[in-house]
Amino acid sequence: xxxxxxxxxxxxGALAASGFLSNRAFSQSAAATLRFIPSTPLPSLDxxxxxxYVIRNHGYLIYDTLFATDANFQIKPQMVQxxxxxxxxxxxxxHLRDGLVFHDDEPVRAQDCIASIARWSKRDAFGQTFxxxxxxxxxxxxxTFKIKLKKPFPMLPAALGKLSSNVPFIMPxxxxxxxxxxxxxxxxxxxxxxxxxxxxxxGQNAIYxxxxxxxxxxxxxxxxxxxxxxxxxxxxxxxxxxxxxxAGALTKGEVDWYEQPPVDLLPxxxxxxDIAIENVPLxxxxxxxxxxxxxxxxxxxxxxxxxxxxxxADYMEAVVGxxxxxSEAKTFFTPGSPMSTGTGGAxxxxxxxxxxxxxxxxxxxKGEKVVLLAPADQPIAYQQxxxxxxLFKKLGINAELVATDWGSFIGRRANRGLPDQGGWxxxxxxxxxxxxxxxxxxxxxxxxxxxxxxxWPEDAAMEGLRDQWIATPEEAKQKEIAASIERRAFxxxxxxxxxxVQQPMAFRKSLTGMVLSPVQFFWNMGKKG
Length: 529
Prior knowledge:
Blueprint: H1 12-16, E1 33-37, H2 53-62, E2 67-69, E3 75-77, E4 80-85, E5 91-96, H3 110-123, H4 125-133, E6 134-141, E7 144-149, H5 156-160, H6 173-176, E8 193-195, E9 205-210, E10 234-238, H7 243-252, E11 257-258, H8 266-270, E12 275-279, E13 284-290, H9 300-309, H10 312-319, E14 326-327, H11 345-348, H12 353-363, E15 370-375, H13 379-395, E16 399-404, H14 406-412, E17 426-432, H15 460-471, H16 475-492, E18 495-501, E19 504-508, E20 511-512, E21 526-527
Parallel strand pairs: 1-10, 1-11, 15-16, 15-17
Antiparallel strand pairs: 2-3, 4-5, 5-7, 6-7, 8-9, 9-10, 11-19, 12-19, 13-17, 13-18, 14-18, 20-21
C-alpha cells in the first residue's frame, strides 16, 4: 500500500492553535532565554553509552573536549593548551589550559581526562580502535598527562577531537569511572552551560543555565572548535512532538528554534517573515539496521535479499516528500567525500522485488517472526518503518511492527534476545553524514561483534580492511581500501543505506550568531528583543 507521510500530521493543527506553551513553567525573560524544540525529548544523560544525537547535543552544552573539529574538518586544540609527540611516536604529552573548572567548582585535572578517555574508548567505534594502540596513561601533574602507545597512532588527535557520536567529552573522574555499560548518574561537565538536573523531566523538558566560570578560547568559533562564548543565560528544551504544534509555537514566537520541522510545514514557516530556514550541513543518511545475532537476519544472505528489494526513493519520499531535499546514495560513506566510492552499490541495490523473493527462498527463510521496532514519536524513523512494514508484506516476511515511544525504543534496542524475549529484528534510524566520512569514524561499519553498535555484526574481513585503512597514510591507497570496504559491506550487509536527505531547521530571525553545523551548537548565539 502507498505510504502517506502526511498522516503523521493529522490532528496536530488544533494543538498548535491552543497556545501549548502558555501554561508551562518556563522562564519569562525572553531576551535571556532561548527555547529550543529538539528532534526528540531528552531521554537520558549519558553521551558515551548512547549515540543518540539529542544526547550528543546535550553533551556539547555541558561538557568540553580535549580537541575539536572545525568547519574545514581540521582538528584543533580545545581544552588542551599544548602537546608534544615523542620522536618515535610512542608517547603523547598533553597540557591543559589554565582555569578549567567543573560545574561543582572542582578543577579539571589530568586524572579526569584519563578516566574520561578510557571510558569513551570502550564504547565508541573509533575509540575502540584507539584503545588497541594504548600501552597506558600517566599523570605528570594536575594539568599534564601522557598517553603511551604500543605502536604509533598519528590519528590520536582526530580520535579525541571527533565531531559526533560518541564524542569523548571530559567528565569528573568519579563519574567517568562508571562502568561503560551503565549510564552515568551525574551530568557534571566543565562546558558553557550547567544542566539543571532537579528541573529535568525525562522525555519532557531539559533546562540549562550559563556557567559563569567557563573560560572560552580566544579564537573565533568554527563548528566544535574555537571560542565557545555563552551569550544566552538560560536554554530550555521544550517537548513538542506534534509537528504542527511545534511549527505553531515557532510562528507565534513561543519558541526560538525548531530542530527538525517536516518538509510539509516549510511553506507555512517560510511565509513568516520572522522565521529563517537553513539546511543542516552535509545531510543525513536514512538506514535500516538488522539484529545480526538472531534469526532470520543472522543470515547475511537474507539481509542481502532485503537490500536487493529496497528502493531508496520510497523511503526518501515517505520521510521528505520533496525531491529538492533528497537524493539517491548507494554508498556507505558520505556522498562527495574522498572515501565515498559506492563500489558495488548499483549491483546490490537494484530495487528488484522478484529477485529479492527468489533470494529469500534460496537463503532458506522459514517464516521466522520479525519484529520491526518503530519509535512513533520520532517521525523520520517511524516513516521509514512504515515503508519497511509494507515491503516485508510484499516479500512474504512474517513481520510485526511494534510502535514505542523514543525512551522505550532506546531501552529495547539494547536487548540482544529473540523478538519474543523482548528483543527486536530491524529498526530504522538516521545518521549524520559527519559520522560517515571515513572507515575510522563510521560507527555502523564496525563488525566487531558484541562490541559493535546495536545490531552487533561480526565480520573479520571488514575489520581487517578497516585496520588496513587506519594504518595507511596515503590518501590514494586509502581510497582503494575504502572501495574494498564498501564492496564487502554490500555483500555482508551490516545495514542498508536508504537514501540521503537534507534536514532543514527553522529558527526565529531574532537569534544571531548561529554556528551552522551538522551538530546543533548553542554558543556564540545571541537574541534580540
